[in-house]
Amino acid sequence: MTYQTLRVERRGGVGWILFNRPDRRNAMNNAMRDELRDAWTELGEDPAVRVIVNGGLGRDFQTGADVKELASDGIGMERYRESVQKWDLGFTSWFLGIDKPVIAAVNGICAGGGLHFVADADIVLAASDASFTDPHVSVGQASTIEMIGLMRKMPAEAVLRMALVGRYERMSAARAYELGMVSEVVDPPERLHDAAQELAEKIARNSPAAMRATKRALWGALEHGLTDACKAGAAELVGLWGHPDQAEGPAAFAEKREPRWKVD
């Protein structure tokens, strides 16, 4: 496909979705919302892609909804309202049920709706000069879905502080690491995409089927109590039994070679 607001690439077994509106600090307009659904679906359905990395081109990662578009034409705000009311968050990997590993590589500013992509990623890397802020309440909007998602990654008080202070405070990458929002801070910042590719290549060496089952089980646990989550996880475990990768993994280990995983 041809994308106007994104750059979609394949680097070996790693697919990349890069926000590509650097002149607007990668703010998300209606076109980007539509293209994100297509991009996640395209890479999610490509058997050659084992891991997806989400990043930003230019100086910033993602600065949320394009407020100028919302304020100027009336259509943008109406489409945004309608999509939320219909519970259609098809621009996010979480809503679309992407069960491949997803890495977010955050550079520069991640603000507002950009926090969706941090909350939804399995692993988050941040450049050492990255920062995070949630200006929703500062522009008269409630801060809800993104911040609820972040509560699975970090303490509730830190999330509430970000949501209630709004645009008047930014969280540094170092502080985000301390709080568990990100798992690695990359320095110098220019190495961010290289570091994300390196991590993705390590992950891509594992069984695609096993990783999908693992992701479904662990994310599914957030929807259940402990016992129900463990039962659902057990179903994923049993469901993988008999898959060719279960025999290939031990065989490759014993023969001291790279495994030849089945491509579903």
TrEMBL record:
GO molecular function terms attached to this record: isomerase activity
Positions in coiled-coil regions: none
UniProt keyword terms in alphabetical order: Isomerase
One matching Pfam family: ECH_1
Family: Belongs to the enoyl-CoA hydratase/isomerase family.
Name of protein: Enoyl-CoA hydratase/isomerase family protein
Species of provenance: Actinomadura craniellae
